[in-house]
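COURSE: Structural Biology Practicum
ASSIGNMENT: Worksheet 4, Part C
STUDENT ID: 0417
INSTRUCTIONS: Below are two proteins. For each, the amino acid sequence is given first, followed by its structure token string. Answer the questions at the end about the second protein only.

PROTEIN I
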Amino acid sequence: MNTFQTVVKFFQDCGLFIYPSLLIMALGLAIAIERFVFLNRARSENRKVWAQVLPMLQNGRFKEVHGVTAQSDAAIGKIVNYGLTRMQSPGRREDLDAAMEEGMMEIVPRLEKRTHYIATFANVITLVGLLGTIIGLIKGFTAVAQVNPAEKAELLSASISIAMNNTAFALMVAIPFLLIHSFLQAKTSEIVDGLEAAKISFLNLVQRLKAESSANTASAR
């Protein structure tokens, strides 16, 4: 029996419970791929926009930064834009911080969206596999009771082996799902930490430029 035939026989031996397990696996994989692509794109766009606007911020070219961030879909662009919009009216550092924090509260849920479903699917598929195993064992013991004693041991052994296929398949899916969930969570945290760092850098830059501007005005008098 070659590998392909072994895999086909494995799935056939799982019985009907393999179908919900396959559906859960497909949904989990779809979410994992979508989140991986989304988070990679978000991180790449954030780095690109921040590299573009940081020199402008350091030189106090706020109008140009406002123009760039207003047209940007990157998370970091939106947060900086919140701060620049708030700067158009007089306010303290805390007011700018609050305005940018509002932007964070809008963006972070988008980054974390759907990722928790992967951990949920890992738990659910384990339970579905366990249920398939229990049902398989019940069927096996029921069948053993109806055959002659000479065939009982062989039939019971075969039934247990088939029933265990459901749990084995569930664990083969659940363990990678838990690892993928941890990986995506770490990736999301990395992006959020980057946004927080950019926000602090922006606030410090604005405060420093305001202090320099006030000092120049005072010396000119």
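PROTEIN II
(use this one for the questions)
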Amino acid sequence: MTSSIPTPGLPSGLFRPDDLRPDQGYPIRIDRDGTWYYHGSPIRRLELSRLFSTVLRRDEAGDYWLVTPAERGRIQVDEVPFTAVGLTVSGEGASQRLIFRTNLDAEVTAGPDHPIRVEEDDGTGEPRPYILVRDNLEARITRAVFYDLVERAETREDGEEVQVGIWSMGTFFPLGRPMNRAMGG
């Protein structure tokens, strides 16, 4: 079973790119660690951040919005709005399930509807892993959780390429670029 952050009372389709309501431009920011700020001060009540997250949307241009039936406004998100801070694993092989816990205590199970993707930093080459939580909103997988994934990773060979990755719900997610077997990397 796949789970994600619930969005009670507000279907994801409520966000429409042709919405003509004015942009309220809320003074809310989410930093790289997933901490929510209001007027530059951290929001310390987890319940409040969780409530705001239920009305968070991302448009096709990549802008983040808080959208309610009454109003809407852009907010600033430094990277992605959530962080994946915990991992629970059940099963083995292709039927294994990777269940991530976000910084807002939501759970999401990696699979076809919630893929894991890994980018590389252009400057350092370090991996930057993410998981899709819901509706075009991602969580950055923290370093400790990513190391846990790497420890559990398998290799797959396809011709001359060797791929390191991990299974969840029947989907193999690469954790980096494929290596050429003949070149050793």
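ANSWER KEY EXCERPT:
Q1: The first strand starts at residue 28 and ends at 30.
Q2: Residues 143-152 form the longest helix (10 residues).
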